Amino acid sequence: MKRHYDRLIEPYLLNLMKEFPAIAIDGLKGVGKTVSTKRIASTVFELDKPRDFDIITNIPESLITEPTPVLVDEWQRIPSVWDFVRRAVDDGASAGSFLLTGSISSADTNIHSGAARIIRRKMYPLSLAERGFEKPTVSIADMFASVEPFQSGISGKTGASSRDYILEISASGLPEFRKYTTESRKIAFESYIGNILSHDFRQQGIRLRQPETLMRWLRAYSAAISTDAGYSEILDASTAGEGTKPAAKTTIAYREALENLWLLDELKPWIDGESYFSGLKLSPKHYLADPAFAVYLLGLDEKSLTGVSGWPQRAERFDRKFGSLLGRLFEALVYLCLNTYAGVNNAKLFFAKTHKGEHEIDFIIQKGTKVLACEVKFSPTADASDGKHLRWFMDKVGNDCRDAMIITTGGIAYRRSDGIAVVPASLLGA
Which domains does the chain have, with CATH numbers? Predict the structure, then answer.
């Protein structure tokens, strides 16, 4: 039997559907969009099924004659669905009428944006809270709701160890992948990536003449996970030891295609930070939708991550500049979780770093003008010197900073005398 996962986006969507007629849920293939929306919908059209494809192609009116909510899964297979739904909203469709899911961000410029008609939300791989890893005791929502900054309750204990987090990094947040053994999961990732190169790229009008060139670039990008390394640096790492390299415009096309498939996930810098700071970097920070992809692409597994076997040379250049790959993979796992926790709180996720690198805030969760600041540490403890960047941030931002936390692999959640919360990743939730 398939394991049932309670997804945080489901009650969130149900709440949105009380007011909005149409909601589009984007996200990586296999992330669970179809399973979650089927639980909500009364009518389902799956456009990867010939029968449903034929119905919507020839009788699009079925979208407004069947019981609502109507789910159109993989809507981009018939792009006109988007405009049909938009017009239905303009004509007065009631709240909760349509759910659209898509695994490719449409690049069709002839399709109306849907602004003010179709609400778009993104679904991410399973967060730690959704995996049932531990019951969260610290809430992002409570931190924002606290009347006074740095006053929300911080408590809880967990038996999770660093090794447990390593296993979760490797196990993946894609529900279907979690049932596999280590070796079978490698086969599943190989097939998944292969399908992207052989099929999904073609859907975007891109012909891959040298797939291995893209794979080398993807491996270098994976080695640079959780860094703001320049794209030229990633390109150099992908062609190390070779006399030639692909043109920059070629790798830009790769990057855009992979972003359209939701595989790459670039974290934007905190632009609003310019109100408080000068000299912040404006380049993005690099992540994949799931750190397990980086583990696979770098030829790693649980044994290598725990030091039993070898380490990829490609990661060494980024390790020297940005810190150990293992720590950065843990940060990527936290990033995956924060995307979901922030999203269901109608908050946005950013990071901040000064140009010279003197100060860096790993994650900033922003809701309106209020922010939470997060530092990530792959360690069971946070000593007195940890949090200096958070204290710098708290001093600059003042009361707009509602809370600050160091996210660790430790066993206890508590608040320090300087106001900073220390929270094991497994105890943090929405």
Answer: 9-122 (3.40.50.300), 138-429 (no CATH)
